[in-house]
Amino acid sequence: MASACLDALAANDDTNLLAKYLEKPALQPIRQALLTPDHTFIAPNNAAMSNAIAQGVLSEDGKDALLTLQYHVLTKSILSAALPANTTVFVETLLNDAKAVQLRGAPQMLELERMSGNDTSLKVGDGQTMVLTTETDIQCPMGIVHVVPQLLRYPPPAATQMRSIDAISTFANLIDKYNVTGVTNSPVLTIFAPNNDAWTDVDKQNEHYSASFLKAHMTAMGVFHAQDLSDNQQLTMLSGRTIEISKPDDNTLFINGIQVVKSNILASNGQG
């Protein structure tokens, strides 16, 4: 049985390479998902597919591509035009394999951010690497397709994700120094990581820092997106310390009186 979304991809001059790639036997679960009602497919365009294959990110036979492409399939229909401007939503993907996700059986999420004004473009990604769509709201009988110019990579473990972010390199280095990497890769974790501006030169050399101090920035109470947190909410950290959330409006968040400057960076086991 053919998928109407696959037919739409094949008929589109910018996504027909993806449609051809999805014919590979190893990718039958993706084809099956596109036959399921109420889904959204974030479709890499021809340039993205060509680059990914040329760079070895996707193999010619597709055997290593299943997890990556499952991260492109959302389990509900999301029309960009139906989202209010400047809205961010998190949607479950098909990706829930334990090799790539450590959320106690829950699937990995994908972040979608609707642009401002009348622009119905979306930014999609893991909060750290966001990609702007080139085409949105291609409607199929079973779901929606949005086209992106880059293959999305599912989020790595928290320790790896933090090492990739220059703005929190001091905290990431201390995680390694005090052997807390294993803790940061525990399932279902939210990390409140101080950025480099939060540290002085004295702070960086201060030997009183310890594993307990670093764990005071992490909670295993759940994976909390900024939108999930509420004013006056309290969270217990891995050190046993309690922190308090202040949220004067939907776009402003404070932790113990310190403003959060960037939020919603996803990891395979949680977010920060």
UniProtKB/TrEMBL annotation:
Pfam family, one: Fasciclin
Stored InterPro entries: Adhesion/Biosynth-related, FAS1_dom_sf, FAS1_domain
GO cellular component terms, A-Z: extracellular space
Gene3D superfamilies: FAS1 domain
FAS1 domain ranges (all copies): 2-152, 155-272
PANTHER family from the UniProt entry: FI19380P1 (PTHR10900:SF77), PERIOSTIN-RELATED (PTHR10900)
Protein name as annotated: FAS1 domain-containing protein
Source species: Bifiguratus adelaidae
